[in-house]
Amino acid sequence: QVQLVESGGGLVQPGGSLRLSCAASRFTLDYYAIGWFRQAPGKEREGISCISSSSGTTDYADSVKGRFTISRDSAKNTVYLQMNSLKPEDTAVYYCAADLSAIGYCPDYKTAYDYWGQGTQVTVSS
Q: Quick one: DSSP state of residue 105?
């Protein structure tokens, strides 16, 4: 069974950093666009970053641009989201997802991604 598993969330002070991981089992992440999403209580899910298959083209929402970096380690079959300069408004459950049909580009975040992880909580608070 295809699985995506996020890890790396936790409690961090404003201005701090965290690195989230998205590990895959039973499929190769390199072949798919991988998106990171987040959802805060009472808010809609927000797509915040994506890395495409093959070319590794990246995309960022304005809310995280310049602070977050997405990357992929093919040997570990893992996609990372490095989050720096964290703000209280970054508090949310973070999810990664895989889109099987987008080849070489990042799809619109409202696209129906095919596989989702269970999420990891990120809390930014002093």
A: S
**What is the rounded CA–CA span in Å between residue 69 and residue 82?**
5
Averaged pLDDT, groups of 10, the chain, 126 residues long: 92 98 91 96 96 91 98 95 98 96 89 93 98
Q: How far is CA 103 from CA 47, 60, 76, 84, in A?
A: 18, 18, 21, 29
In this prediction, residue 71 carries a pLDDT of: 96
Q: Looking at residue 26, what is its pLDDT?
A: 87
With contact defined as beta carbons under 8 Å apart, do 116 and 42 qualify?
no
Count of beta carbons in the 10 Å neighbourhood of residue 79: 28
Q: Which residue has the tokens 């915040």?
A: 48
Query: What are the strands of the beta sheet with 18-25, ordered from one edge?
Result: 3-7, 18-25, 78-83, 68-73
User: What's the CA gap between 21 and 35, in Å, rounded?
Assistant: 12
Which neighbouring-strand residues pair with 123?
11
- What 3-state class would DSSP assign to 6? strand
Instruction: Give the separation between CA 57 and CA 50, rounded to whole angstroms.
Output: 8
